[in-house]
Specification:
The complex is a heterodimer of chains A (about 500) and B (about 220). With about 500 residues, chain A is mainly alpha-helical. Chain A has 20 helices and two strands. Chain A has helices at about 1-15, 20-35, 40-50, 60-85, 95-105, 105-140, 145-160, 165-180, 205-225, 240-250, 250-265, 270-285, 300-320, 330-340, 345-350, 355-385, 390-405, 410-430, 435-460, 465-504; strands at about 185, 190-195. In chain A, strands 1-2 form a two-stranded antiparallel sheet. Chain A is globular and about 65 Å long. Chain B is mainly α and about 220 residues long. Chain B has three domains: about 5-60; about 75-110, no CATH class; about 115-215, no CATH class. Chain B is built from ten helices and no strands. Chain B has helices at about 5-25, 30-60, 75-85, 90-105, 110, 115-140, 145-160, 165-185, 195-200, 205-215. In chain B, helix 1 (about 5-25) packs antiparallel against helix 2 (about 30-60), helix 6 (about 115-140) packs antiparallel against helix 7 (about 145-160) and helix 7 (about 145-160) runs antiparallel to helix 8. The model of chain B is unreliable at about 65-75 (pLDDT under 50). Classes of the chains: A mainly alpha (about 500), B mainly alpha (about 220).
Amino acid sequence: MDSLLQATSSGFLQVFTWPAFPLMMISIVIGFIIGILPGISAPTTLALMLPFTFNMKPAEAFAFLLGMLSVSIMFGDITSILFGVPGEPLSASVILDGHPMAKKGETGRAMGAVLTSSLIGAFIGAFVLAASIPLIRPVVLAFGSPEFFGMSLLGILFIAALSGGNMTKGVLMGAVGLMLSMVGMDPQSGIQRYTFGMLELWDGVKLVPVTVGLFGVGELVDLWVKQKSISEKRVGKIGGVWQGCKDAFAHWGLTVRCSLLGVFLGIIPGLGGISQWLSYAHSVQSAEDKSNFGKGDVRGVIGPGATMNAKEGGNLITTVAFGVPSSVTMAILLGAFLIQGLVPGPSMLTSKLDLTMSFVWVVIVSHVISVALSFLLINQMVRLTEIRSALILPGIVMLVLFGGFSEDNSLFSMVVTVISGFAGMLLVYLDWPRPPLILGLVLGKLIENNLFISYARYEFSFLLRPILLTMIIIGCMLAVAPYVQKLFAARLRVKEEFIVAEEG
Amino acid sequence: MSRKKADLVFSIFIVLMLVWMVWDGRGWELKARLFPWTIGLPAIALALLQLGLAVRGVLKPEPQAEGGGAAAQPSRPIALEAAEAVPRSSGEAIVAAAVESAFGAGSAAAEEEELPAAMVRQRTLHMSVWILVFCLGVAVLGFKIGAALLSLAFMRFAAHEKWKLALAISLATYFFFYFVFDYSLNVPFPNGWLADWLGLDALDSYIMNPIVNALRG
């Protein structure tokens, strides 16, 4: 317990030291600007910023990245309120009541409510993250290589199952990601795998060019296709923010419940996408007078706002402790772990505990700062949405290309970025999910290492270790579930049709 | 090529790739082969299943042609799907109604997607080509000057912005790359093929170096 307290204070200090704090401030501002600009989502923002962390120390890098992530998540909600268009495709439930509120002239109140509940949600998420460490530590320390091997595969399976409808395609993409991670010199035997004799591939397929390409290029093209700023109509002056702020406290119970819901859903890989919807449903369900929902009830804004930001706390728990991210953004953040030479798992909870605790502080501090900034500057910030996309496009194209290039300062990596970009567009067009691919690529080396150690120590009998066996069973159930469901649904439909036919 | 046929081709590609990757590892010692085969062999089985599904998708006659075949519309289906995933409750009807009013016909979210398919295709192609041009331009001209000139070209010829605005933004782009990456972070930018071919330094260095030196005194 003592070490935990020590790590907490040391983590706090790490956030407020010289390069880390200003870097976090810069990232918050960047997050603000990119967050409110049309068409660029949180994963892309995060991917674009990865190259900037190459020269940073771990604490600085995560202050930079997590700070930005906090802001961009918050801004997804603000876009939803102002324009009735989801800032992030999967986090759209704030629109349901937020946008009607804006139409009624209560923009400020909706924003105040969402910002305050976000802040409370983030606090609770961060607190649960900190509090869970002593509980999770024994579990993680009891895990050996076989268990981590199983856990990582299970994580990919979860993301594949929940990230985009089609399970087969999702799992296949995860496998392709893993196969791509094998390109290059094999660490154990020195054999060159799949390099085509190209020197550039000896080191393997690089993470940053592929991530930036897969997520960035598609969005660039999308920006050009839509070719307009999100706000055709001017947003008027925003007032009444304090009223919304008070609302979030007036519905204290709802805010806390939805935050806890968010943390819980954040722990389960892949559920992040529907967490906001679940919390909206909970807001409706728990309200006594439901008549105003969908027409601008402030409670419909508070619940989802709290959940969205609390979720990141839960997300971080599994990412840090098991190396199993439960969302795309966390998968990209896991890439940052690799860039920093960090291995998620036991060391993050023992020798690197202070770094983990600094994450908690970054989440808290960056939220406080960005909420304060929002309150102060929101009227000016909203102007940014009037910028035409054509003016920001070249800059972002260059950032994407530079992002690829800077991985190892080679034009080859830049070309890899562009190729991944077009591959990403193809995947979107054909409805193959991208997140499992990235996760496979990120986790590949780690999984191979764990598999190799497991095999070296136990030969194939490692597969019979009880925890791993349980994971395999869960994995199989997860893999078969959609097909069984489909089968049952089909039977049910046949039966219904039969009944209808009989009656008709 | 229809989307389903393209999906079939892609599925074939995945199968072939996985088979090749597994086959290529046959001569390796166990240490190097263990992981590729552990992942690759089950993946091939799964890829064949996917291939089967794709074949079925192509062979099965379409119930009714999708109107216009507009590009994937993420917001509405996802929103509705997610709303369906919401647990059954007394407030269910209210949630459904709210989702309908926020994402249904005529809402701001739905209007976002109202672009004709041909235009979407044309603009996608347009931007893809521009990205290739940017990539090539940076390789030929070097990073900083390439960034500036191509930004100018893009804003002027693709977006038809005013000269002044385009020029100002390209200059800003140049200085951003110069001061942030070159000057502060010391990123070793290549000089560009053109400069290499002419046997020169980075093209912009002839202008910028004297200025920076003069400023330093």
